[in-house]
Amino acid sequence: MWYEGQQHQWDEQPDKKTQKFFEENENIVPDFTSVDDPSVLAESKDDENWVIDNTQLPWIKVGIDVPWEDIYEEANHLLYTSCYTMHRPNSSGWMSLCVHGMSTVHTNVPEDYGLEDQAEYDLSDWTDIAKFTPKTKQWLMDEVRYSPFSRVRFMAVLPGGWLAQHRDRDKTIGVGATNVAINNPDGCKLVMGGWGTLPYTPGSMFKLNTGYEHAVWNRSKEPRIHMILDGDQSPYFKQKVNEGYAQMLGA
Ligand SMILES: [Fe+2]
Question: How far apart are the two ends of the chain, measured CA to CA in Å?
Answer without folding.
Answer: 49
